Each structure stands twice: as structure tokens, then as C-alpha cells.
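Reopening this one. Same input as before:
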Amino acid sequence: MTRLLIAMAFWTAVLPSLATAEPDDSILIGLSYPRTGHYREEGLAQMRGALLAIDEINRDGGVLGKPLRLVNRDSAARPEKARRNVDSMVAEGAVMLFGSVSSAEAIAAGEQAKTHDRLYFATIGYSNDVTTEKGHRHIFRESTSATMTGRALGQYLTQHFPDKKYFYITADYNWGHTSEDSLRSNTHTTDRALHPGVTIPFPTAKQSDYSTALQQADASDADVLVLVLYGHDLVRAIRTADNMGLSRDKQIVAPNLTQSVIEQTGSSIMVGAIGAEHWLWRVPERENSKTGMAFVDNFNQKYGIYPPSAAASAYTVIHQWADAVRRSQTLNTAAVTKALENHTYSLLKGPAQWRGLDHQNVQRVYVVKVNDRSTVIQHPSKQDYFQIVHQLDGEDAVISPDEWRSARRVAGQPETLQ
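Same output, byte for byte:
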């Protein structure tokens, strides 16, 4: 309830200022994100990270001598709303667009941005097809892909849970299927008779869907329960699993385990759960990233909490786009795209690259395990949720060029981005 009241106060203070601060000489960028719906926590984090980045850039003189201004629309993580948002923000003058939590939302917004010759950055959206089968020259992805997550997490699980039986509960859409397939491949659990699984509807799952799926997991002899769910769906499933006592009998794994899920669920319920993240606030200190440590401190001072990965992604997108505009000395989409492609940088952690082949951000992936309650509350922030138990460099995690071209051929897509 406290976090909800803070969020409401945040929007009451911020939205009027966004609506009135409209200098004629500003450069407009557009954020389409879930302000409502199941992924609203991740959406709020993106807005906060974006506002912090814009404040910093404007204090340093803006871009091409002009201040940045943010326009935003609520997508509710729905693809059709994301498309309309893109149309609306471009009509208002947005020269670049970003956002999303759902992969389907990211794909839809990216396709619509292409029709307007605008770049779209998927801040969050883990399904492989965002930058593979559905990839094109107008979309970049900041977050990791399902392949990257599966390879990092698979390495750790194979080493620490050898010869164990798995049970998969998967959201029935592209992200769920590609994440499950990647993790099965990297944990040698592709035999579905030995390592069974069930799907649950998305985005219309009911409590009975979670209960039925978890009862099947409980009745199995699996040692590892993989919840290929995200956001609110993962929160509901973990609470149900805890009520059933499954966390005492099985190792809980969630491919994309975020700070907001811990905060919504409660860290005490999730102790020992294993997942993967592309950024967490402990990383800058671990990798001696001065810019990253400053981001954590500034975010904490501004909002009273430590930043989650969704905030870091939005912050990174804006700074990287602004840097590409400065280097190309133009807002022209083709020129900015060229400046981004194969550009290597370090911002909030170690080196990363916008790969020219597919516009996937190649970056280190971290396998995390949820800390016990005493560790969480010992830190002044009360947000020390994760310990990093394994990591995999981006070059080793990302889909190879040959794999990417093969996937494109199978989908009937050209072997270069169009």
C-alpha cells in the first residue's frame, strides 16, 4: 500500500509538468509503456528512469543544442494500443520512440514506428523474435533475449542441479514458448515425457489456471519447478505455490526474475528462487562502473528507492540514442541507426554493444538467487534482494549470426534487416 501511495503521489506531481513543459525548440521523444495493467510496476520504473536521463541530458545542454521533452502514452502492454500510441506520438512530433514490457507490444510498436520512419527501442521484451524473426532496421532491443537468458541460466542449473527432473509452467505466448525452449535446450530437458510441462492462458489466466497447473507440478516427481511467467502472472503463481508448500519441496526457477516481482510478492516468500537479470543495482559497484553507481545514487535520491532493471533500460536507451544523435550530428533516422550499429559503450555496467546484425544489445547476463530475509533487511535500502551466483558475457550468450540467419530463413525473412 505504501508503494502504491508513493506511485500515486509521483504521477500527481509529474504528469501536469509533462503536459505543460513544452518549449517550442525542444526535441520530442515518445514513451509507450504500461501505466496500467499487469506490468504497471515495470512501466513506472521505465518512466522514472527516462525522466532521470532527460533531466541529466538537459542539464548538460540537451541534444544538438536543444532540450529533450518526453511525451508518453499508456499501452497497458496491449499491442493494439501500442500501435495507436506510436501514431499519436509521431503526429505530435516525436522523433524517437521507446518503451514496452510485453514482447508482443514491442513488436507491434516497432512495426508501427517503421511505417513512420522512426526508431523504436524495446526497453523490455525478451522473446527471441523481437530481434530475430520480427526484427527490422527500425527496432533495437536493450534487454536480453530468451536465448541469452536460457544460456546463462542453463549453465548454472546444469552445474548445480545435474540429472534433476524439471516441470515447466509456461505462459502461452511467444515469450513463454521461446524462453521455455531455450531453457530446455540449455539444461538438457528437451524430453517432455521425462520433464513435462503445461501452459496457462495469456493474458487472461485465472486463479484456477495457476492452481490446476501447480497441482500437476505438485503431483509430479520433479525436483525443479520452472515458472516461465512474468510480472503479475509470476507473482500470482509464486504466491499460490507458496500456499501449497511447493517451494519447500522443489527448487523454484523463473527465467526473468525482477526486482518488482520480489517487491510485489515479498522477499520472504521467494527466498532461494533462481532467475536471471540483465542489470541490478548491485552490478555497478561489482563492475566498478562510476556512471552506474551515480545512476543508482541519483535514482535513490530522486525516488527514495533503488532502481530496477526496467529503469536502467529506459535510462540507457535515452542516453544511447542521444549519444548517437550527437555523433551523427542529425536526427535523421538512417544516420542515427548507422551510428548505433556495432557501437560499443559502457554506461551502467561493463561493455555492451548494439549489434549491427540484428540490433540486439549484446551485454552480460546475471544469474541471481533471492537472499534470505536477514540479508535483505540488513542493507539500509531494505532492497538487497539478490546475490549474483553466475554470469555469462554477452558474446557467449547471444544468438550466433548463423543461428540468426537460419531462424530468418525458416520464417521466410531476408537474411539482413530491412
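So the earlier flakiness isn't reproducible anymore. For the record, The chain has two domains: 2-144+284-360, 147-277+365-397.
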